Structure formats: C-alpha cells, structure tokens
Please model this.
Amino acid sequence: MTTEKQYRVIGTRPVRPDGVDKVTGRAVYGADVTLPRMIHGKILRSPHAHARIRGIDTREAERYPGVLAVVTAEDLPDVDVVLAVGEGGDVNMRDASHNIMASGKVLYQGHAVAAVAAVSPHVALEALKRIKVDYEPLPPVLDVRKAMAADAPLLHEDLFTDTMGQRSEHPSNIASHLIAEEGDIEQGFREASVVVEREFVTHTVHQGYIEPHAAVAEWRDDGQLTIWCSTQGAFSVREQVAQILKHPISQVKVVPTEIGGGFGGKISVYLEPVAALLSRKAGRPVKMVMDRAEVLAATGPTPGTYMKVKVGADAQGNITAAHAYLAFEAGAYPGSPIGAGCTTVFAPYRLKNVRIDGFDVLVNKPKSNAYRAPGATQAEFAAEVVMDEICEKLGMDPLEFRRKNGAKEGDWRPFGPPYTRIGAIECVEAAQASEHWKTPLVKEAGSSRRRGRGVASGYWMNWGGTSSCTGRLNPDGTVALLEGSTDIGGTRASIAMQFAEAFGIAYERVRPQVVDTDTVGYNDVTGGSRVTFGTGYAAYALAKQMQREIAAKLAAIWEVDPESVTVEGDRYSAGDKSVNLVEAANLISEQGQQVVTSVTTTPHNRSGAFATHIVDVEVDVETGKVEILRYTAVQDVGKAIHPSYVEGQMQGGVAQGIGWALNEEYIYDENGSLRNASLLDYRMPTALDIPMIETILVEVFNPDHPYGVRGVGEVPIVPPPAAISNAIYDAVGVRMTTLPISPARLCAEIMAKNSARA
Model:
C-alpha cells in the first residue's frame, strides 16, 4: 500500500479513451445493436394501478400477419430465490419475475402483462392492440401513510412485516421495519435546551438518464443465450436472467453496450428476460427498446417518502439527541432504499443518543430502484432542514454548528462499524474558508425578489464489491487492460490511470476495454460509488502481479534468482542486466512466452464520502420562482485520480439535486395513472436553470485503498434539496418541507405566512 506522495499519472487530466467514439457517433449503445434476421418486441402494459387479471386472450395477436411470438407470465418458470445485485440491494427473484411480467395481479399502471415479437416495431404495436385482457379493478393505494394503515388495500396477501427478524401476525403493506439506536434518547431530549421536530414529504423522482432501456437477445438452438444491453452490470444481468428463466448461467453471455446514463436505474432487468423468451419462441434475435413514457411509468424511480425528524441541542450547540422516522415507498414489491436512508440520515454528525425507525412500504407504483445515493437525499433533506432550524433558534452559525458536531474517526454509525478516517469536518472547514461563504450576499434584488443563502451536509457510504481485471503485455510494451465495469463517468480512464501508475508506464500505453461476461472474471455493478475504488484496486493488484510475472520470466532468461530482479518504473534490473518494458516484452516474446495475468479482488471500503454545499438563491415572492444564483460543492474525494471527472461527478450530482429540489416529481391521479409520463411534463432542469457550479476538492486519504481513493459519484446529490430549502428560508422566512419546492407550493406557503401576519 502506498502513502501520500507525488504521482506521475494520478492527478493529471488525460483524454478519455472512449471520447472520440462518443463524440463522432461510432460508439455502440443498446439500440444500435443489429443482428441478421432480427425482429422487434413490444410490451402490453396495464392501464390500471391495481387489478386482478382474470384472463388474457392472445389468439388474435398470434394470428396477426408478421407476428412470430407472444409471451405472458405463463411462459415464465416459478422462481423463489434471493439474489444480491449490488447497489440495488438484495432482490427476490420471484418478485423480479412478476415485475417484468404480471402474474395474477397488476400492481401499477404500466405493469407489463404480455409481449409480442414481430417483423417490425409497428407490426408489434398493432398486434398488442389485439390482445384482450380481462381485468377486475381493485382500489389502489398511492400514499405511503395510507398504505401503512391496518385497513389499507393489500398489494400482496402473503406479505408480513419483518421487524428486526420478528414477523407480524397479519398481512401488511409494510414489508419491513428497521431499528437502529444508541444511548438514551429520552435522556438526551431532557438535556436539550432547544428541540425541533418537523414532518417531511418527498415525491417520486426518476433518474432521468438520456438513453432509454434497450436489449437484444439471441437464444440459439443449442441453448446458448446472448444478450446485448444497456446496463450498469453485465454480470448482474447474467445472474438475474439465469435465475428468472431457470437457465444455466454458463449458457448466458451478456455483452454490455455503451450506456447513456443509469444512476442506479439500470441495474434491475426489465426487457432482457422478455426479449430472451420471445427469441426462444421465435427462433430469431429480438430487439426491444422502451419509449420515454415506458421508462417513466414502468421502470424503477426513487421512492416517495414520509419522514419525521426530531433533534435536540444544548445551549452550547451540542446535539444531545436525535430521532428519525422514515417511511419509504417500495412501490409494487419490497425493496426501497430504506436501509441506506437509515444509515445516512444523521451520518455527518457525532451522536450519542439516537434512534432511527425505517419502514419499507408497498404502494401501487413501479417498484422503486436505486438513484444516485439511494435513500440518502430524502433522509438528509429532512435532517439538514431540522439542523438549520436548530442553528436559527440557537443563533449559531450553521457551518460552525456542523464543525462542532461533525462525525470523525471512531464515531458510531447505524448498521455498520465505527467510521475509519473520514473527512466530514475537513469539508465543513473548507466551506468556511471558501470565497463563496466569505462573500456577503445582498438580500434584496428589486421589489418582489429576495435572496438567501443555505448550507447542508451529506454522506454516502462507499462500497468495495468484487472486481476482476485481465492484463496482456504486448510486444511493443503496451498493455491491453480488460475490465468488466461499465464505464459511466470516465472509469476506463480512471482505472487505466491507476494501472499505469502502479505499473510504471505512461497512461497512453494502456488500452482499456470493457468486455463481456465470457471474457473477464466477475465484476459487481457500476454503482455505489465503487468502480474507481474497487476496480481501481483490482487494476493496482494486476499491475503488481504483472510486474512479478515479468520479473520471474526475465529471471529465467537471465538465469538469476527471481528475488534479485528489481523494478523501478518500467525498468527491470538484475546485476549488470537492465531492460525497459519494451525490451522485456521482446525478450519474453522471443522465448515464445506471453504475459497474460488476471486478478480478482474484493476490498473493504469502511469509510465513505462527505460533502458540504453552499447555495445562494433568489426568490420571486409574487410567482414562487426560485433561481439558483451561485453554488459551491465541497467534497472529500480521498484522492482525485482524474480531477476533471471528479469535478464533473460533483457538478452532475448537484444539477440533479437542483431538479429534485425545485421541479421533479411524478404526478398521479386518484386512479394511480401517471399524468406526466414525458419529458415535456416531467420537468428536469436545463442549462438555463443551472449556474456554473464551483467545486472544492478535499483530499483526506482513505486507508482502505492504495492511493487513498474514495467514491465520489453519489454524495453530490445528497445536500442540494436541503441546502436550497434552507436558502429559501433565509430569503423569505418560509420552511419548505415538501419536495419539490415548486412555484405553486412556495407561493402557497408565502401567502399563508403573509395571511397569518395580517
């Protein structure tokens, strides 16, 4: 393991190896894959949010000219297995099977009930109209609090609440109740001089990736199934498809295409098993591509929530007690990110008396999925708004309060070991020292516009996972680096840079490739901020192993003890013999030998990443419109391998957080129909809504990685909603506790405040 030092490659900003292909259009994405004799699949989706399926008649669709296959849930085998798929958590494959094709009941509007493969997408769509489904509509439950009621309509009659291993007596929509506690919370509140308790609501939000889901499946007569798809984890797709279809995993090969964004939403499978079934029936390759309405209505968004947070502090500003009640919508099947919400809600703080209650609750909406720090944005929105109010009541500077109470090494955290070396306090101190914080803000900007400044902190636990890399030394001294981690944020470059640093060669001499599941060892998903850390760790180990193998082969050629061969950069020496890497590669090649090395590593990442954000807003009190004037994101990145990509991850997370804070939400009617299933009506921010986002990189060495790396991709989305809500309060004196803070909601609160004052 190396210590902090000056590096040759790490910390530089080289060009990404896939850049030219992407800007010229040569890169192959999911929908670009075309195979000989390929046909096209489409899915029939439920118009009801909750209904029993009394029957499906596909005969007319099967007879329609150009149709080659039709499938329903009847074509899927029964499965009952739980599979760990990384950032998305453990997945019950029976639920996953029923989610991709409804069995017995539909549980949300857009739930798939049948699929058709035909000679063209248009023919497939026409055939869908000829499928007759007999529905018995049932009352939907769309609000998490109503779903928790004892008399609420049940989504699953066989689901019982699991409370820390104890099963409830009666069926419920509450899948689980998590509890984490430390100290004596009641005593802590008795010691408090100030206590603040508030309720919060957040609505369903989608990841907003540019590229819709796409998959091509070819099921050959010999049973070999090959899938090309847009995914965050080819090995995860392979495992899920093999389990859902009960097909030998050795006969499933997944080829990951380039991916147009995922943010956690492209881990679960939706199209892949269906395309495979259609291909098996039709005897031809099948392509399936979702349209945008399907993406929004029928894939996994982040959950809506109801939360209640109570915090107490003494007169000196020390937190004495904290309690969080978090109820997250799981959607149609168990598995919201409630565990992560409980882990992160108070993470930036040192707490001695705390209790956290988390509930995973089913509602008639799509099964929720991971979205960039899943669960943390909602939970820390609630906590950070309460912390801001505590500061106001104490008359205390909000950054000084966070510094005073900041978490540090050895402190308690729920569902995990104590923190190792972390940078929570260093981020706050960097924010205090920033030009943004030191620059005064003029509060008034015209007759109807008011300005405010807000801060918030955030946390995301990093994950190591399992990664594999293979390296092949070429005769010209370059290295072909094969990895299985989907490149979403420039990880081809960040992995190649770590390999080059450890191997002692220039970055330009590494040729990184993301390959299929038959070509490299197992890799966990690109998610959980793990790839630059975890796959980078594997690349480091690979470089060192390749050096040892090269030294051993040279020792045999030179007839010396392998231990006598030393490595300095790209030079190998023993006594009076010394060669550079190119010369070594030629010597080895002349002996008819090759250096091809593979490694698999599973490093533990026990720390995590912290951030503190500062935002200035301008509020038009007459319209409720909020404009972001200035934004600064401070984050502990461990070690910035490629600073440009780190800054880009921070800026991207902030941009998504701004959309979450101000605009984005699913709007359902009383029947459970999604009313804004298009990007015209689902309002994501554009360049006109986002200022230039300033970034401050704090580097606190992570002892779990050779170069001190921490994951950086997720924590930037955590603080923005809370920071913006706090800034709005500073501007107009209204505490916004519901997301998004739309103009209508803000206007209503401002008017209510003015009426109360009158």
